[in-house]
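Re: [ENG-882] Designed sequences occasionally contain unexpected residues at chain ends

Forwarding the minimal case from QA. Structure tokens:
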């Protein structure tokens, strides 16, 4: 709108004769288009960088800051212009080549403006421009999740706004082209002007390079070049994979036993016949009442946790569903990259809880309210000895959709209550045989879907919608527990309530879940419910890899040697858990005792938080603890190297088995 206003104002003061004199040579078109692109990208950068609205009333005071903020946009435009100017100059005898080169440049400039507009919302959501890693995470924009996220953020009004800005850019380019014609330079004046521009540009590049160090690169980088950088095949991996690690800080399955935990009462193995995983999508522990939430939206979980063990410090190892699926079922850490095991290696040769129980005569089933096609989750599950796998595509219940807003219906998932109906029907058919089943909810996934009337819990419309969805998940869980009691299965069934990852609503400058590794991203609920368990709260620090081994212990069964996790009931296990996130910046971290350690391998920034004194992670202690920072780096590197080695070994085993099968 600001660019459109400028163009309109200039038009008022320029005569018709001015426009009739415009000479649209290819070179001048590139110059005019480049100048317009610089202007509009600078205006858009103001929004991305978070400048105050005072800018528009006190432009001269803010102008130097705007120039530095637009540094990478300036470099991008100059490189783009230089490329096409060289082509035009080299093809002086080929008018068509010159003409089409100018057209391609103008089209590229217009696309760059559109990308700049979209970048405002993208940086707000992801913390940085869209990159290849996020494209991979979205299943290359083929998943219902990615289309849903687009639809919820890009309205028709937003599209009309983009069209208006593009029209303003075209109009402004015409005005600048007219000015170029009026100020036509010849001879020595042309050389002086060119030299002045060259000197000014060089000073800007050199000085701007030093100024930018004090800015957040993610809010300054051009969206086009940022994406191209992310697909760089020569991009180096974090040094944690290769750095030397002291023997005492190396990771191993048998962790140090210097901080024993309180021994916990467990159910006898004879009491646990069946196992149910109730996985709560995008649910951090902090939103459940049993973990201290002020929002009274999970009364059923609170009620039934009185006959269970509430593990207070359990973490997802990455803030992503499919990575958590692998850790939860197979008790292995995910591959430390943006790649997903379910996508790349769905037939990976690893034992899972389902395959171990299947070998003991169990019937297994997996019920998902969402779509198992995302990152080939269905293919991964198909290799895990499940007798039945269902999702929103093949569920038979009548509840096919539910309301996000009064004028828009979600068509890519099932109501969680519908999924429960499917699971209950299967349990009734198989309750004479021991069973293991997983129900994965979905309504708490962004942009959040509730069923029935929306209650008012919070003024933030997204968070309020989320809390309504969470309330519905709790209702569904309550119906599951009622069903088990009615079918006389309560005393023989262990129910594990667990979150796959967290969800953020503004804290640490983030929304949704996959960007960072703070508590709201990774700290998840984990509750083991069985009549033989009292109302116990455990301080054990662990992760999703520890859930399956703990279940095996409660059933009196040995855990496979290939598993990375350990029994949460063991008194000798170390209170330490590791995690990472690779999509925005490459982040490593772990929690040990009350301390949380985070290292951003992309920009070499470390953070340390005392969660007992600072549960919201607002006071970074790293600058005060340089020795602790160095030790934490060694420990993270030891874990990263262990996971990398274990994954390579597993993949090698898979390849050997495939070769033997072919022979």
């Amino acid at each position: 709108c600001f660019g459109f206003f400028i163009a309109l104002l200039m038009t008022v003061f320029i005569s018709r004769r001015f426009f009739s004199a415009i000479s649209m040579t290819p070179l001048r078109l590139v110059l005019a288009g480049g100048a317009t692109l610089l202007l509009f990208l600078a205006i858009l950068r103001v929004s991305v960088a978070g400048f105050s609205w005072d800018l528009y009333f006190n432009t001269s005071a803010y102008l130097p800051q705007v120039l530095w903020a637009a540094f990478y946009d300036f470099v991008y435009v100059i490189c783009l212009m230089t490329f096409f100017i060289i082509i035009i100059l080299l093809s002086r005898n080929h008018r068509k080549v010159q003409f089409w080169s100018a057209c391609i440049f103008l089209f590229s400039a217009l696309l760059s403006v559109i990308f700049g507009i979209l970048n405002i919302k993208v940086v707000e959501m992801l913390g940085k421009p869209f990159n290849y890693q996020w494209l991979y995470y979205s299943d290359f924009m083929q998943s219902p999740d990615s289309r849903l996220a687009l639809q919820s953020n890009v309205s028709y009004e937003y599209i009309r706004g983009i069209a208006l800005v593009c029209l303003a850019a075209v109009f402004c380019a015409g005005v600048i082209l007219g000015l170029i014609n009026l100020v036509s330079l010849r001879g020595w004046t042309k050389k002086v002007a060119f030299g002045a521009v060259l000197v000014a540009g060089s000073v800007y590049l050199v000085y701007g390079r030093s100024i930018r160090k004090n800015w957040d690169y993610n809010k300054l980088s051009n969206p086009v070049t940022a994406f191209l950088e992310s697909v760089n095949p020569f991009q180096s991996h974090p040094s944690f994979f290769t750095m030397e690690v002291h023997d005492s800080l190396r990771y191993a399955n048998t962790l140090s036993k210097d901080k024993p935990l309180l021994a916990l009462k467990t159910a006898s193995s004879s009491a646990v016949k069946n196992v149910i995983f109730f996985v709560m999508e995008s649910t951090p522990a902090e939103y459940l009442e049993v973990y201290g939430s002020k929002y009274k939206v999970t009364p059923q979980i609170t009620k039934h946790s009185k006959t269970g063990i509430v593990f207070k410090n359990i973490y997802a190892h990455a803030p992503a569903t499919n990575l958590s699926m692998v850790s939860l079922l197979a008790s292995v850490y995910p591959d430390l990259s943006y790649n997903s095991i379910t996508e790349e290696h769905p037939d990976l040769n690893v034992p899972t809880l389902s395959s171990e129980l299947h070998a003991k005569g169990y019937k297994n089933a997996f019920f998902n309210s969402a779509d198992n096609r995302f990152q080939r989750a269905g293919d991964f599950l198909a290799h895990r000895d499940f007798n039945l796998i269902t999702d929103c595509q093949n569920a038979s219940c009548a509840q096919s959709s539910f309301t996000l807003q009064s004028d828009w219906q979600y068509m890519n998932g099932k109501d969680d209550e519908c999924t429960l109906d499917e699971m209950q029907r299967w349990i009734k058919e198989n309750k004479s045989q021991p069973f293991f089943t997983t129900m994965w909810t979905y309504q708490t996934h962004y942009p959040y879907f509730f069923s029935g009337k929306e209650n008012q819990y919070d003024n933030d419309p997204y968070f309020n919608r989320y809390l309504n969805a969470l309330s519905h998940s709790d209702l569904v869980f309550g119906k599951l527990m009622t069903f088990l009691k009615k079918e006389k299965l309560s005393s023989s069934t262990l129910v594990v309530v667990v979150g796959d990852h967290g969800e953020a609503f503004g804290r640490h400058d983030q929304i949704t879940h996959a960007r960072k590794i703070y508590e709201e991203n990774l700290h998840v609920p984990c509750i083991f419910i069985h009549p033989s368990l009292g109302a116990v709260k455990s301080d054990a620090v662990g992760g999703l890899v520890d859930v399956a081994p703990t279940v095996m212990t409660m059933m009196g069964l040995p855990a496979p040697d290939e598993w990375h996790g350990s029994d949460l009931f063991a008194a000798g296990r170390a209170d330490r858990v590791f995690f990472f996130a690779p999509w925005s910046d490459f982040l490593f971290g772990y929690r040990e005792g009350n301390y949380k350690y985070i290292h951003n391998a992309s920009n070499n920034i470390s953070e340390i938080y005392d969660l007992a004194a600072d549960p919201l992670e607002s006071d970074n202690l790293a600058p005060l603890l340089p020795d602790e920072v160095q030790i934490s780096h060694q420990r993270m590197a030891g874990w990263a190297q262990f996971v990398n080695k274990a994954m390579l070994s597993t993949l090698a085993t898979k390849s050997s088995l495939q070769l033997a099968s072919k022979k």
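QA comment: On inspection the terminal residues look reasonable. The chain has a mean pLDDT of 84. Proposing we downgrade this to a documentation issue.
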